[in-house]
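Researcher: Good morning. I'm working through a list of sequences from a screen, and I'd like to move beyond sequence-only analysis. For each chain I'm collecting a predicted structure so we can compare shapes side by side. This is the next one on the list. No need for commentary yet; just the structure.
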Amino acid sequence: METRNLAIMLTDIKGFTSKTASFSRARTQELLTRHRELVLPVMEKFRGRLVKTIGDAFLVVFNSPTDAVICGMQVQDTLKAYNADKDPQDKIEIRIAINAGEVAVHDDGDIYGDPVNITSRLESIAEAGEVFFTEAVYLAMNKTEVPSSEIGYRQFKGIPEKIKVFRVLREVPVGAQPPGEPREAAQPPAAPAPAPAAAAPLLPAGFFHRLLSLFIDVVIVMVLLNTFNLTGCGPTASFSSKHGKSAPPNIKVEDVHIGRDGIEVSGKDGSHISINKDGASVVGPDGKVWNSDDEMKLNLGGEKGRKVPANMLVWALYGAILLWRFGATPGMKIMKLKLVDYHTGGTVPADKVFLRTLFSLVSLFALLGYVWALWEREHRTWHDLIAGTRVVKA
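Model: Good morning. Structure tokens for this chain:
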């Protein structure tokens, strides 16, 4: 068994399992055959060696990282042309991931090693129609032939260090040609277009910008609730203790203050809740203090329990619909923030938006899910972590 430094490409068909669930065996085989006929000739043109097929996936190696990336681009161009006049069920859309590194090459031609595992993890987050590759490929390839954009660092399961990920900028043709064919042989363009600058990195939203946007959205939702008479009274915070200790008094919420030091919810009788980076505390009207160390349980609601689901439903619909349609709520728009997919930096799919909005209700309890963002490196809340999203500067 020898070791070699190779560029590793892994591809698979988007939604293959769901797509072929209603296919006959003959139609499934026809799809796989057509996929092979379209993709493999392009890989062979760039001197790629097919290591193995895994269902609808191809594992291919190249001696040149540049050849591997340009090959991936031509594969996507070939499939785009093929799909132009096809029905959705007949389209072949694939994801392509490329990594480079030293691998062990078995006598039967199979390859093993961490670079292969990283390629597999990268392929799981790649988008259909795109070519994703790692920093190892970026550093080794000819950058003048491949316009690219940095996506950012990603943490993959089973990989101890974070991996910097890039993608090919598909808006600009690269004029790729088969390896070995001189560039002069290709027809030169009349006026070569300048290579685009790499997309600006996405900057995480500041914690207090997020709190202010949340406050604006809460005010808007409260106005909606009162306008349509969905609530008849202000919210009430009630508590219970897990260890039999006397619980803090119920707090009739009168005012919410958000500042640089944290959040303070004031009651009508002088009681209040304080939340900051040191934790949470409740002060009763008599000055008695309960800290988060007392393991309190917080319950939020109106005077009538039946009103709580209506409030929660309006909040969920408000966030889900606006984030799905516009990528930001009014509060986020005012604070110049937007929601993006954590892995790709692009538009968040509808399923992730609704999952995030559902779990935002969990984060709202004592605002602990938002306070968590104080410690998180990219200021991600609980619902961001669960849904695989992040809020960045627009």
